[in-house]
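Backbone Fold Data
Goal — fold tokens
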Amino acid sequence: MPALTITARFPLGIFLGHAADGVSRDHFPTTKRLHGALMQSAGKGGSAVVKEGDLRPSEDSLAALEWLENKSPDAIQHPEHCSVHRGMEIAAYRAEGTFDGTGGKASLRDKKARKRIASGEAVAGAFGWQWDDVPETVRDVVTRLCEDVVCLGEGESPVVLSTEIPLVSPLRQVAGAGQFTQRGISVQSPGPGFVRSLEDAYDTANPRKRPSMAADGFSGSQRPAPSPVPDTPVRNIYYAMPAPATATAPWTRAIVLPVRQRVEQHARVPWCVTFHRMLAQRLGDDAPPVITGSYASGLVPPANRVAIHLLDQSVLRLTAEAHRLVDTPSAFVVLLPNGMSPTDSAALWSALSDHLRIYRREGVLETDGRALVSGEAFWTEPGADVVRSWVAVPALVAETRRQPTDERGAWTLSDAALLSLGFVFRDRAGVHHRGTRGYRELTDWVRQQGTKVLETHIVPDSDVAAYAHKLPKGLVTQAYRARLDLGRLASETAVLAAGQSRHVGGGLLVPVDLPSDIEGAWPR
């Protein structure tokens, strides 16, 4: 079934409405008020029919409005709005249309009453309501009724209703909310029987038998007799902004800083270490743990923190921003982890100016500009008829010693690679055990995501500083290369790094695309 969307635009930029007491000001038009306006349109607008000499709602209109009263809107739209007047109370004295005859007929005079004047709400946009699944007949009837609604609230609050404009940033209905949970804003909505109660109230106020002349005569003591407010069924429905979709990428954003010089592969990890130290020094004592990696004792650090990598031109060509980096010899890429607070992100951004100089004994690197890009769409999409796998640049470094053999077999480099991926996603894995048991459970979880290690081999290089910065005591540096199929672990465009040095230049996973016919030659 199609959706039904109603938007209310106030041409004067003001919404003016009172609560049932006639004094309290409404801050926004409720669903109950909208329903009442549609009921008025059905009874006195172009869709009304003549019954016993009076205009009344048609059966189609009643059926459509009764359908709406049984189903509250799935979403609403509330633009920015505020009180027009926030100063002292405004009051007016005006004739009520009655007389004060307390002194006898000779002293009859127009009675003036003091009434508080509501200033209304200034509105920066349109209010809206949306029902996700509505029968076609109901949608057609309500669309016609909207055409005859001229005001929403007081007569000084003209409105234009439309069913053709989609909602922008809607608030969604909150399931299970109530006044004690305080989840979202409360909006009065009609309940079952609302339409019938309005019909009964109209019949009471407009009896078919007119009063006699005597009963309808003038009385010196008469008082204002407004139409009674019908006791309509009403329920409070709560709405709130839906939570944003949880990002699954370990690093959701990246800051790219082009470098004017090309850096050899064996020097990239040391340069990333130097960059990290420079960054911590620029931040000083205010450097957050997500950047420094130094967490207070007793705190469990997150799976990932800010990571720094140095990419050369051959890798930059594979990124989604390749068109902006065609002439860039190298670039530092600072990865911001999923869940990094806005305060820490702002501190990091302010510490990275457009032009930086990073010094080591080997020389100096200069950056030229900076750009914030997506970490979830970091790499280009794979082309048609290709299969994407991943290789680590410059290499992976094992993060644990070789684990004991169990029923799964001996511990291999493939297990080490799966464990490194598991450490990156450990916040999602839900593994609580530590040591060998926890490592095995983590690798099992990674395999369940469809991840496969296609090939591995040791890197025969004694220059361990090119692959690792600092290892736990007693752990020998074991650098190796691996080609991976990530399965469902991450998207085909997200930036990932794994292994012991993933936060300082090591283990960046770079996509490798092969034609499907060639890729099929390797067992998976």
About this structure: DSSP finds twelve helices and 25 strands in the chain. The two ends are 44 Å apart (CA to CA). The CA atoms of residues 451 and 486 lie 4 Å apart.
